[in-house]
Amino acid sequence: MADTDITSFGRFSEPALLILVSLAGGPKHGYAMMEDIATFGRVRLGAGTLYGALTRLEERGLVETVSSGDRRRPYRLTSAGATVLQAQLDVLGGCVTVGRQRLALS
Amino acid sequence: MTRWLVRLYPRAWRRRYEAEFVELLTQRSLTTGETLDVIRGALDAHYTAWQRRSGIMIPVMLWRGLPFIAALGTFALSYLTAALVTATVRQTLWIHFHTDGLYGWVPVLTWWTCSLALAALAWTRTRRWAARHSS
User: Fold this and answer.
1) 3-state secondary structure chain A
2) What is the ipTM of this complex?
């Protein structure tokens, strides 16, 4: 089974997480993903970075293409992708909670 | 420009992603940063394809040794340049002012410091790069 741990993507880990979050809102093609990520993540991903992360996610079965007549192929989250995203958000949620508590204490 | 950039990617990658990637690039204004990001993406795609074909994973020890090799290489190259320049400077000074001693050491010490600073920079940059790519 392919390694589905996105933290093993090296410099593509963070873009991969942003893509998963973006696709959790519904299927999107590359440009729509970039715009969405720029809005909620306040990060402008480059096309090379976006496709570097997208390639890895697709190879591991975390995202898949939706059939479309358009040249701009849309992608959607698979059930494995949703599980990985949920696990990542749980970890981040824990960090956010602890961070906020510690900031309030200091 | 867009077509030329996409041609930097491996053929197998292009078969799968070219159409949509070109479409994406034409929708965005190609700034210098964006162009560099695409070139970096192409290098990554070649590296990943090579890794898959060869089955070779660069050993962890090599990744750990990279900063040392980079620092040593930078220092050697920088100092070699320094030595050549310094020799010329000293020779010129001697010919024109007949002076040596402490004054002659100033360029040598300057180049030692510059070479060490460059080596330190190479060390830190390579360590950061290796940490990102070794996984």
Assistant:
1) CCCCCHHHHHHHHHHHHHHHHHHHCCCECHHHHHHHHHHHCCCCCCHHHHHHHHHHHHHCCCEEECCCCCCCCCEEECHHHHHHHHHHHHHHHHHHHHHHHHHHHC
2) 0.83
